[in-house]
Amino acid sequence: MEKQHRCRRLVLVPCPFQGHMTPMLQLGTILHSRGFYITIAHTQFNFPNPLNFPDFNFLEIYEDVISGFNANCKAPLRESLARMMEKEDQHSKIACIIYDEYISAANMLTYQEIPRLLKDDLWYSTYVGAEAMMLELVPGLEPLRFKDLPITNFRDLDDLPQLIVNAHDSRSYSAIIWNTMDCLEQSSLAHLRQEYQLPLFPIGPLHRTIPAPSISLLKEDQNCISWLDKQSHNSVIYVSVGSIAFLDSKELAEMAWGLANSEHPFLWVVRTDSISLPESFQETVGERGCITKWAPQKQVLAHSAVGGFWSHCGWNSTIESISEGVPMICQPYFGDQRVNSRYLSLVWGVGLEWENDMNRGPIKEAIRMLMVGKEGEVIRQSAKDLKVKIELSMKQAVSSYNSLNELVDQILSF
Ligand code: UDP
Fold it and tell me: Best of 101, 297, 339 to mutate for ligand 1, by most ligand atoms within 8 A of CB?
């Protein structure tokens, strides 16, 4: 513990969703281990259990976040911070505020480019429904197609979401921290470094830097780990579409039969309260399938029985999977997931892009291809190679390790 930093307090402001809480609390844990006091500003909606983080302070912001997180929380956050600063002594001066917004460097690049696309009228042609255009590559953002862009429903510059406006207003922040690695997103980070005259700190994968307490907003089912313990090496396909996306009842049924017919053991996260699967399904799969409402995902992906991940490609799931060398079937739903899916499959070569309707036949084929098929061999090998690269990037004197030290120095210079 570096006691000399203890007089600096950092206020972290995560968006109140699992996918944002997770990396922000991991970041808090890392920076706390580097000697900073940590305050987590949170809303009444979706906040972590403070008992899991006895060393952190929690600052509640009383606001209705659902109807507009940024707009509604700004004033109460300001007031709460002002109160904190009135009380602050020299042992806990606020050094900086860290808020979360962007996910991967590639995603931020797309936000950079959207105003240009609008100016060139390129976006409008896709908005008015030119289907063929959706499949075209976006100039400057290859291999992304228009349909892969994270935001699709606005027409002109005045209608830009705050996220994009903020991307262009670098006056409001003094550095950017990424849960990514240079070895993964070198070219996107290089573009951003050129664009911004700001320090960028790619310090991922955050969950591998130091162990953090559980950040799950839902109760993790540890029984699935005992079930995994009984399965053979690399045999299990893990299926989860994260904390927000979901399959409708028809898709659930097709997925169930695709899994059953693949003949692979499967661990499947189904968050819906009731899932009614026919008796014939239960008879077919028996002990070969484990269905749960919420799994300890990082543990699952690190388990030697898991050989593949059917994922919606949220950025946390992406990072957690590639850090463990688990190849993926990429079924993105919205936002950044489409960008991540494209990079997983075409740039890093560790994923199979799922672009079909949800039908049991192709689901079974995709699982077999990924897990054991000849066509999946290259993907499986690339996933192993990428894991090695990521592990290297975290070692002393290599990129993520250095970036973290530079980040600490930067905060101390404020
Ligand atoms: N997660 C989990 N158990 C599950 C499903 C998801 O712990 O059964 C965690 C997962 O490890 C990841 C987060 O929930 O850290 C989901 O974040 P991601 O960015 O992948 O997707 P989102 O939920 O934001 O769409």
Answer: 297
Among 306, 316, 331, say which to mutate for ligand 1: greatest number of ligand atoms within 8 Å of CB.
316
**Predicted ipTM?**
1.00
pLDDT score, position 1? 46
Q: How far is the CA of 369 from the centre of ligand 1 (A)?
A: 25
* Atom of ligand 1 minimally distant from the CA of 20: 24
Q: What is the CATH number of domain 3-104+166-213+395-412?
A: 3.40.50.2000
Residues 6+ apart with CB under 8 A from 101: 163, 166
Q: State the virtual CA torsion across 121, 123, 126, 129 in degrees, nearest 10.
A: -80
19 lines ligand 1 (CB under 6 A): yes
Q: Which residue has a Cα nearest atom 15 of ligand 1?
A: 316
CA of 294 to the centre of ligand 1 (A): 9
- 32 Cβ inside 6 Å of ligand 1: no
Q: At 95, is the secondary structure helix, strand, or coil?
A: strand
What is the spatial distance between Cα 330 and Cα 239, in angstroms, rounded to a whole number? 11
pLDDT of residue 311: 98
99 in Cβ contact with 27 (< 8 Å): no
Task: Give per-10-residue mean pLDDT for the chain (414 aa).
Answer: 67 91 96 95 86 93 61 78 80 86 85 79 58 83 90 62 62 88 95 89 95 89 98 98 94 96 97 82 95 97 98 98 98 95 98 97 98 97 98 89 95 92
Please name the helix (run of DSSP H) or strand (run of DSSP E) that holds residue 316, with its range, or none: helix 315-323
Which residues make beta-bridge pairs with 329?
A: 310, 352
Taking the domains of the chain in order of start, what are their residue ranges?
A: 3-104+166-213+395-412, 105-160, 223-391
User: Is 297's C-beta closer than 6 angstroms to any atom of ligand 1?
Assistant: yes
Q: What is the pLDDT of residue 90?
A: 65
Helix/strand/coil for 283? helix
In this structure, whether the domain defined by 223-391 belongs to CATH 3.30.70.360 is answered with: no
Q: For the whole model, what pTM was predicted?
A: 0.94
> Given this chain, do its domains 3-104+166-213+395-412 and 223-391 carry the same CATH topology?
yes
What are the φ and ψ backbone dihedral angles of 269, each rounded to 5 degrees? -90, 115
Atom number of ligand 1 nearest to Cα 271: 8
Kindly give the number of the ligand 1 atom that is closest to the alpha carbon of 216: 7
Q: Is the CB of 376 under 6 A from ligand 1?
A: no
